[in-house]
Amino acid sequence: QPKTIGIVKTPNDPRVCLLPKEVKRLITELKYNVQFEPGLGSSLQIEDSQYIDTGATSVSRQQLFKTSDIILSVNHTYNGEELKDDSLFIGIFNPLFHSSKLNIYKEHSASVFSLDLLPRTTLAQSMDVLSSMASLAGYRAVIKAADLFNGIFPMFTTAAGTLTPAKVLILGAGVAGLQAIATARRLGAVVEAFDVRTSAGEEVRSLGATFVEVEGHTESASAGGYAVEQTEEYKQKQKELIHQHILSANVVISTANIPGRKAPLLIETRSVDAMQAGSVIIDLAAEQGGNCELSKNNEIIVYKGVTILGNSNLSAEISSSASRLLSNNYFSFLKYMSKVEKPDDPLLSASQILNKGQWTHPHFKSTQI
Ligand code: NAD
């Protein structure tokens, strides 16, 4: 008996987790039945008929929850509807930060996999939603900044005089930060970047930007390549150095995060006070509390002439490209899942939060929310 996959729409997010091309592959290659909520692709101008042409069926949302073995969505959208026994949810649930949203799955004895918990290893690369979305967000942040900034990025030499290139400061040179550096460089800006991981320095320099380092940082081999919390002394030194570099920056793009923790505060109000009017800050860590003291998640504010945009979901603004990548990520995960035989598979264990209503992820097992 083939399993049934149900794809639900995620309200307030124009991204779609599976496009018709990959739905067809689920049906023909992996032998799943696929059903979807009507209007699934409407935000991307994809008609229901395009999904139906692949062999999928359109069913009401209520019916979809009741009859699917595996339910897919971009993020949280389940409100306690009736489920089939042993149903399993797959999405990008940001569980370490939105832990209270998980209770409803537990109450309904569901299993949950969150793709943002996959380890950042070569094996998981094709399913790595964090990388695909961060890469788009880094690009989009620069495009937004170029639009909001009241100057230009490249050097202009004209008969009426020469305009110097914009100075862009990137805080956090992970996936989003590196893509932001590359995009700002392509537009002709002069770019500087900070990161607590010294290993990021080489990548920053290879993109033509200057790497600014604070001495005395902490790294941990067990952090899976992620940053770890720094000492108070380091944080003070870093704030001071960032303050010095912000003084001459026209655009600051901050992307610094520590998994499961509040984002590090890197841009103090006194630094924004010292920026030139017309400058721009894009805070991609806004959902995790923000790298800038003044930023507000999902808001754009103007403080003493400096525009501050807080948005951790900028990939949703380029939803067509984002859905293209997500669709490949989700398909790869489902394909991987269908081939796994060992119960303790490292990728599935790392991304699973609940198994039939029981916590499996160590973070939740120990805190028992
Ligand atoms: P992230 O979103 O968790 O954080 C963004 C960046 O902010 C990171 O580079 C981090 O070091 C930096 N940061 C954290 N605290 C900071 C602070 N106080 N000051 C300045 N910078 C700070 O990171 P990410 O983009 O998701 O990448 C995390 C790691 O995963 C990186 O090492 C990356 O190279 C690695 N990665 C590996 C693969 C793979 O396939 N092997 C794929 C993607 C990412």
From TrEMBL:
It comes from Aequorivita ciconiae. Residues 146-310 form the Alanine dehydrogenase/pyridine nucleotide transhydrogenase NAD(H)-binding domain. GO terms for biological process: NADPH regeneration. Residues 6-137 form the Alanine dehydrogenase/pyridine nucleotide transhydrogenase N-terminal domain. Gene3D superfamilies: NAD(P)-binding Rossmann-like Domain. Pfam families: AlaDh_PNT_C, AlaDh_PNT_N. InterPro entries: Ala_DH/PNT_CS2 (IPR008143), AlaDH/PNT_N (IPR007886), AlaDH/PNT_NAD(H)-bd (IPR007698), NAD(P)-bd_dom_sf (IPR036291). The lineage of its organism: Bacteria, Pseudomonadati, Bacteroidota, Flavobacteriia, Flavobacteriales. Keywords: NAD, NADP, Nucleotide-binding, Translocase. SUPFAM superfamilies: Formate/glycerate dehydrogenase catalytic domain-like, NAD(P)-binding Rossmann-fold domains. One of its GO terms (cellular component) is plasma membrane. SMART domains: AlaDh_PNT_C, AlaDh_PNT_N. It catalyses: NAD(+) + NADPH + H(+)(in) = NADH + NADP(+) + H(+)(out). GO terms for molecular function: NADP binding; oxidoreductase activity; proton-translocating NAD(P)+ transhydrogenase activity. Its EC number is 7.1.1.1. This is proton-translocating NAD(P)(+) transhydrogenase. Belongs to the AlaDH/PNT family. The transhydrogenation between NADH and NADP is coupled to respiration and ATP hydrolysis and functions as a proton pump across the membrane.
